[in-house]
Design a protein that fits this description.
Blueprint lengths: L8 H11 L3 H13 L6 E5 L5 H9 L3 E6 L2 H10 L5 E4 L12 E7 L8 H10 L1 E12 L8 H20 L2 H13 L4 H8 L3 E8 L4 E8 L1
Parallel strand pairs: 1-2, 1-4, 2-3, 4-5
Antiparallel strand pairs: 5-7, 6-7
This protein binds S-adenosylmethionine.
Length: about 220
């Protein structure tokens, strides 16, 4: 079953910035940087949450932004944050309410890990991109580096649930986050899923691979 982000919507931004030590902003900026050299007049931000990725696309991306999320509360914050710009709809990534080949680019920041049927969500995101268009997926991952890994585990096992309890008043939500990161496909395994949808894919590892940016070009 999908995790209900309505429960943590009000504290989501603060928790995100604390947990990632503010790095989430830079990671989203990398998405805009990757898209910049390519045509991206119409961009869809899937699982937009509270709208940080959408806002960045509006301000720095110079594109028309469409965004969707399954959580009403997250979406309400996103709309307010973007001040009337952008087209926000409540929608399921696994059944996107857009026609084939509608967008020059699709972004999804920290969303795919939450899809109930990952393959279906990826299939839908690729479907709505124009041939030759790009799909940029940001997702958290466990680091590959064996020196970094024990520090990562300590931080995620102790600090993040503590922050979840004290700041968001919801330790379970953040235990869910850590568990899903550990079991989610990363690197070649994730790239393979996009390649199976007919894309060419590159991966950028951010901060020792704790965050991955996958950029797929639809064939
Ligand atoms: C971790 S938040 C990421 C939000 C935002 N993209 C960001 O950069 O912070 C995950 C978001 O995915 C949304 N989500 C989960 N499953 C979804 C689905 N099937 N369709 C659309 N949105 C979904 C949740 O409601 C939540 O807002």
């Amino acid at each position: 079953m999908a995790y209900d982000f309505n429960k943590i919507a009000k504290r989501y931004d603060l928790m995100n910035h604390l947990m990632t030590l503010g790095m989430d902003r830079g990671w989203r900026r990398q998405v805009v940087k990757e898209l910049r050299p390519h045509r991206h007049d119409e961009v869809l931000d899937v699982a937009c949450g509270t709208g940080d990725m959408s806002l960045l696309l509006l301000h720095d991306g110079g594109c028309r932004v469409h965004a969707c999320d399954i959580s009403e509360e997250m979406l309400a914050i996103a709309k307010k944050k973007c001040g009337g710009s952008g087209d926000f709809v409540m929608g399921d990534a696994e059944s996107l309410p857009y026609g084939d080949g509608t967008f020059d680019a699709v972004t999804c920041a920290f969303g795919v890990r939450n899809f109930v049927h990952l393959g279906q969500g990826l299939h839908e995101m690729v479907r709505v991109v124009k041939p030759g268009g790009r799909l940029a997926v940001l997702e958290l991952a466990t680091p590959d580096n064996t020196v970094i890994r024990p520090f990562y585990r300590l931080y995620t096992r102790l600090a993040i649930p503590l922050l979840g309890r004290t700041v968001a008043g919801n330790g379970d939500a953040y235990r869910y986050l850590i568990d899903t990161v550990e079991h989610f496909p990363k690197g070649a395994a994730f790239m393979g899923l996009l390649e199976a949808e007919g894309c060419r894919v590159v991966q950028r590892k951010l901060f020792f691979g704790v965050c991955r940016l996958y950029v797929a070009c639809k064939g």
